[in-house]
Write a structure and sequence with these properties.
By secondary structure, this protein is mainly alpha-helical. 75% of the residues lie in helices and 0% in strands. The protein has 7 helices and no strands. Helix 3 packs antiparallel against helix 7.
Length: 249
């Protein structure tokens, strides 16, 4: 028995070292997921808010998962140092849940990326036609137009059929040069089309969203599959420690 324990001790030490390194990397990936989730929420949040029919919770899933990973990454280091089989099994269970959560988030972002064009065309057109400069969707439209330097759906003429245009002309967010673009100019049908961006927002927004949702999905898939390494290490270490404990008994 003593010889058996001596033979497995280097293996246990090696596995502990690997698992501690992995847990530290796991903790870092938690911070990365948290950062990506927050970035996704604030960077693409205004665009997603315009798509009420098929919105995605992927940024929120990433924020929640990243926060929990940071906590359990520390737990993984503690469990490894203690060499407790039940703690290691709990760590494996947690890694499994994280793997599933990240997989769902990644698939959600990937699928949403491909569905977005048709939905966005319909909902963004509706937001423009019913624009009132005050509600959430109208503010999101202003955010999109000023950020991407565009006006209307396919071009500025999309505004001609809106409820806002007859009394107010184009919104200020369409102005191509804010220092030479007054509300009076935007109401003047003779010159207002020369004061606004000529390019529409539809192609710009869908391209922006597809690119960034692909980034979120790619990062999530990559980190999710890295959990398999941690699960394998923790399982092996737990089984070896448990076997040694039985032999000592």
């Amino acid at each position: 028995v003593a010889q058996r324990l001596m033979e497995t001790k280097p293996v246990i030490t090696f596995l502990k070292t690997l698992l501690i390194v992995y847990s530290f990397v796991f903790w870092i990936t938690g911070a990365i997921l948290l950062a990506v989730g927050v970035w996704g929420k604030f960077m693409i949040g205004p665009y997603i808010s315009l798509i009420a029919e098929n919105t995605t919770n992927a940024p929120y899933v990433l924020i929640g998962t990243g926060t929990v990973i940071i906590v359990f990454g520390l737990f993984g280091c503690f469990a490894t140092c203690r060499g407790s089989p039940w703690m290691l099994k709990l760590y494996v269970m947690f890694l499994s849940l994280v793997f599933l959560a990240e997989l769902v988030a990644g698939i959600s972002g990937f699928v949403f990326r491909h569905e977005i064009k048709g939905t966005f065309l319909r909902t963004y057109t509706d937001a423009v036609l019913n624009y009132d400069a005050e509600d959430e969707k109208s503010l999101a439209v202003d955010n999109v137009q000023s950020s991407l330097r565009c006006c209307g759906v396919n071009n500025y003429t999309s505004w001609l059929g809106s409820v806002y245009y007859p009394a107010n002309g184009f919104p200020l967010s369409c102005c191509s040069n804010s220092s030479d673009c007054s509300p009076q100019d935007l109401r003047n049908t003779t010159i207002n089309h020369t004061k606004v961006y000529q390019q529409g927002c539809y192609e710009l927004v869908t391209s922006f969203l597809e690119t960034n949702m692909a980034i979120i999905a790619g990062v999530t898939f990559g980190i999710a599959f890295s959990q398999l390494i941690g699960m394998l290490l923790a399982c092996c270490l737990s089984r070896i420690i448990t076997a040694n404990q039985y032999e000592m008994v």
